[in-house]
Design brief:
With about 350 residues, the chain is α/β, with parallel strands linked by helices. The protein has one domain (about 15-240, about 295-325): TIM Barrel (Alpha-Beta Barrel). About 40% of the residues lie in helices and about 10% in strands. Strands 9-8-7-6-5-4-3-10 form an eight-stranded parallel beta sheet. Strands 1-2 form a two-stranded antiparallel sheet. α3 (about 55-65) crosses α4. One of its GO terms (cellular component) is cytosol. InterPro entries: AKR_Detox_Biosynth, NAD(P)_OxRdtase_dom_sf, NADP_OxRdtase_dom. This is Aldo/keto reductase. Keywords: Oxidoreductase.
Length: about 350
């Protein structure tokens, strides 16, 4: 299939109609593709804003038109502007129809070490501040953005439970860069022993080429019926098809400005994975990005990937992954294209 014609086959936003799936054992249902807003208000190293308030509203409108109702943000995105823009957008709608998730952890005040991490002082202050920016009385899911080894798990879970009991937070989640299932399991064991709210949602990095969570992390989530909503489902753009092993890097690409990206993603092994991705994409008449998202949604233990975009057209393409049907054989081929970290055990 001519890849240049794939975009013409992508359904319109109002034809996508995202479905819902259970958010683990919370009792909530989440959109099958969640919307990540980390680019809202983000300023690049060159001083350019990736998504301004006007574009943010267009993207939120587009997600809503496709049936999406789960919006993921964090208090550091855009220096707080991201939450403000979402709050302004929500003010014109019925708040109860939307599930809003945010995160706390990263330092927000220079020279103040207590404005970082998950100590009680910081978490309570940060939650009050993000509720004010979102102009809402509560958020549905509060994530710790990373694990803070300087705060004892008991103190963390007691603090988070207090936020749930106060009605400011409904459910708790943990976002991570590296697998840390044992830390979540330990914290949840403490919470259960005290009758406190446990973590019921996990947010790891996971995609066709970043497979570090396969093994204990996903097994823990499956066994405990904990929801898993992966971030970076397209490998920071590597799985979109914009890179070619034999061509120069696009001037506007992440790889062009990041040697770390080149070392992590532009490898022969990963390009071999992309070759298989392209083959399956051709078979199902989809883009590589749509096919990579469909593969992730098919993975056992994954609840709902988090997708983002810079433009409405990109978002439409990504959300259309929900309309892609992969066979078991195609899923297996993609999975086998790059062995997971525990395949040899």
């Amino acid at each position: 299939m001519d890849r240049d014609n794939r975009s013409t086959m992508t359904p319109e936003l109002d034809e996508i109609d995202l479905g819902t799936v259970p958010l683990g054992r919370t009792g909530l249902r989440t959109s099958e593709l969640q919307f990540g807003t980390w680019r809202f208000g983000r300023v690049t190293e060159e001083g350019n804003m990736e998504i301004d308030d006007e574009r943010a509203r267009e993207l939120l409108d587009a997600y809503e038109t496709a049936g999406g109702r789960y919006i993921d943000t964090a208090d550091v995105y855009g220096g707080g502007d991201c939450e403000r823009w979402i709050g302004d957008w929500l003010a014109e709608r019925d708040r109860e129809r939307y599930t809003i998730a945010s995160k706390v952890y990263w330092q927000i005040r220079d020279g103040d070490p207590n404005s970082r991490g998950t100590n009680r002082k910081n978490v309570r202050h940060r939650v009050d501040a993000l509720l004010d920016r979102l102009d809402t009385d509560y958020i549905d899911v509060l994530y710790i953005h990373r694990w803070d080894d300087e705060t004892p798990a008991r103190e963390l879970m007691k603090t988070l439970n207090g936020l749930v009991e106060s009605g400011k937070v409904h459910y708790l989640g943990a976002s991570t860069l590296r697998p840390n299932a044992w830390k979540v399991a330990r914290a949840n064991a403490i919470a259960r022993s005290e009758g406190w709210e446990p973590f019921t949602v996990l947010q790891p990095r996971y995609n066709l080429v970043d497979r570090e969570v396969e093994g204990d992390y996903l097994e823990f989530a499956r066994q405990r019926n904990v929801a898993v909503s992966p971030w970076s489902p397209l490998g920071q753009g590597f799985l979109t098809g914009k890179y070619d092993r034999d061509a120069d890097l696009p001037d506007d690409s992440k790889a062009a400005e990041s040697s770390r990206f080149q070392e992590a993603y532009l490898t022969e092994e990963n390009f071999d994975v992309h070759d298989e991705l392209d083959a399956v994409a051709d078979e199902v008449g989809a883009s590589p990005a749509q096919t990579a998202l469909a593969w992730l949604a098919h993975r056992d233990g994954v609840t709902a990937p988090i997708v983002g975009a810079r433009t409405v057209d990109q978002l439409r393409e990504n959300l259309a992954a929900a309309t892609i049907d992969l066979s078991d054989e195609q899923v297996d081929r993609l999975t086998a294209a790059k062995p997971g970290p525990y395949d040899e055990l």
